[in-house]
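hey m, so remember when u said the tokens were messed up on ur end? i reran from scratch. heres the input so u can diff it against urs
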Amino acid sequence: MAKKKPKFYVVWKGRKTGIFDTWDECKAQVLMFEDASYKSFPSRAEATMAFNAGYNATKGTKTKASSGSGAIVSKSNIVKNSISVDAACSGNPGLMEYRGVYTHNKQEIFHQGPYKDATNNIGEFLALVHALAALKKQGKEDVLIYSDSKIAIGWVKKGKSNTKLEPTGRNEIIFDLIDRAEKWLQSNSFKNPIAKWETRSWGEIPADFGRK
């Protein structure tokens, strides 16, 4: 028997508003509540985006199986209370750096590198873990993180990178950083939703280095 996929329930108008993990919790807020507004989503990231966007922005839209991208791609629905991360690499492998910024104003929060003989995917992965660790330390596990890398998001979800990078004698620090990131993921849980930045609809991610 196939395992039932989880759903996340957004309540915009009800006894309590927010995101709920079960239908029973959602139902308690909306049942017999006049003009209640609520909807289910297949991932917490999509639910967070929808909750921040508001009911009118989601009314009439269809949710879809989660691909990490979110069901609503209108630029007006970007979650402002969020962090965006990105990496840049000159060559493959090459000189790589990564950073995180506040999505709403592009203010830089962290910036690491450059590192020699690395790849862009590794930078995207390290940036996500860096953001997760920093937010957990600050007790901000409700803040959404945007990344434009499906590969890096997948690595974080698996708790392990799948890089094919070879040691060169100049990139020992990269393998040390990967090891530390993987160990953090294995020994820590996190609640921060991670969402795919929709470059085609929204333009370049705010953390982009502008070197394309």
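this time it looks ok to me. The chain is about 35% helix and 25% strand. if urs says something different then somethings off w ur setup not the seq
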